[in-house]
Amino acid sequence: MITFYNDRHSLHQGRVEMFRGALVPCFEVAARADRVLDELRRRRLGAIEPAQVFDDVALTRIHAPRYVEFLRGAWDEWVALDPANGQRDALPSVWPVRGHRSDVLPENFAARMGLFSFDAGTPLTAGTWHAARTGAWCALSAAGRVLAGERAAFALTRPPGHHAGQDFFGGYCFLNNAALAAQALRDGGAGRVAVLDIDYHHGNGTQCIFYDRADVLYASLHGDPRSEYPFYLGHADETGAGAGRGCNLNLPLPRGTGFETWFAALGQALRAIAGYRAEALVVSLGVDTFAGDPISGFRLQSDDYFQVGEALAAAGLPSVFVFEGGYAVDAVGINTANVLEGFQRRA
Ligand SMILES: [Zn+2]
Fold first, then answer.
1. H-type helices in the chain, by residue range?
2. pTM higher than the cut 0.70
3. Residue in 166, 162, 153, 187 with CA at minimum distance from that of residue 281
4. Fewer beta carbons within 10 Å, N or C terminal of the chain?
């Protein structure tokens, strides 16, 4: 399987995130992607290429132009406020809630940062824009290669993407790589595309982007949002709106869920995708479902991921894999490569 590797991902290096009232070191670190790359190379799972270059208009197929403009200039604005900010990450601290205005773009930088985000756990750094944009290019490149006839391609990138919405960042995500890939598949001729999200966390950004559309099915299995991040979306009764009614499937599972129950839910999602008659598949590949993950609560073991890959291959669809979460740094390479190797075995 061909991998498009984001060779600029380490430009995004958050120093701290807000966690239980304290600023703590970020869980989302550059070593995550490095470990996956090392493991893919060690197993010789396929060619590894840099992304093609796209202009920012490609990003606005999914993201609002004013949001893309904000991300592009945010670091320079932050440092212009105070040169000392160059040594600090930018974190939002104020947000509009129900009944507040989001149509008026504030001049104040902190207010704009809050308008375009939903948590204080996602530091914006000097290299965030360059890393995120190159990551989006990886997803677009992978979609392009699948449209050209490859059975599957993998976008190995960070920061991850599935929490990012049309005009908001959060959950370590800035640009929604999986949504960009799905849109590229649609634009390239696939009539119906399924996005299957197997990260531990619900992909609230992806769901929001496609919620009222019938041409993209979003299916996700994830920790129950009543107790698990991102909390405010991911319930089973969210099934889509308008033309998209019936095109959103959430399968929340309790903390502590093991492989057997999780794998049965995966089967349910894959049956929904088959019933939808999807012509292409995007997999939001998070491996924070692993038992050893420091911020998640499922109990998958490393060997289980081979079976996950085999089940995904059995769907028989041209597939784009997009790297999302997975914070057990010592295992993230093995677990991710196990999914891809299982897929190749069966494809
Ligand atoms: Zn996650």
1. 31-43, 56-59, 65-81, 109-115, 128-147, 177-187, 204-210, 259-276, 304-314, 329-346
2. yes
3. 153
4. C
